[in-house]
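Renewal narrative, Specific Aim 1. Our central claim is that a sequence can be written position by position from structural information alone. The example that follows is taken directly from our test logs and has not been curated for this report. It begins with the structure tokens describing the chain, in the order in which they were read.
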């Protein structure tokens, strides 16, 4: 199965997220803070305050998929300063 075929957009939630949140809590952030539907055919990427953990939320039409990545020594490069709180990775790559 190719998880990432035909995904139109990847969105970063720029502000740190409490990583105790699971699927339901992240869906609330997508709806209330990002103003989007978690059922959209997109990836929603979240980072913790220390920038050593990522969570990626995706609706695959049968249920939610939640990926988790923890770095042991490094930190993720994360846009700390941006004009918007939600960043469309596809838009950023075009500029």
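The sequence written for that structure reads:
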């Amino acid at each position: 199965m190719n998880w990432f075929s035909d995904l139109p957009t990847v969105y970063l939630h720029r502000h740190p997220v409490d990583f105790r949140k699971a699927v339901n809590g992240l869906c609330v952030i997508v709806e209330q803070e990002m103003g989007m539907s978690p059922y959209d055919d997109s990836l929603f990427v979240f980072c913790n305050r220390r920038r050593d953990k990522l969570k990626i939320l995706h609706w695959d039409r049968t249920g939610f998929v939640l990926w988790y990545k923890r770095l042991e020594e490094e930190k993720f490069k994360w846009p700390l300063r941006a004009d918007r709180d939600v960043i469309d990775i596809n838009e950023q790559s075009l500029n």
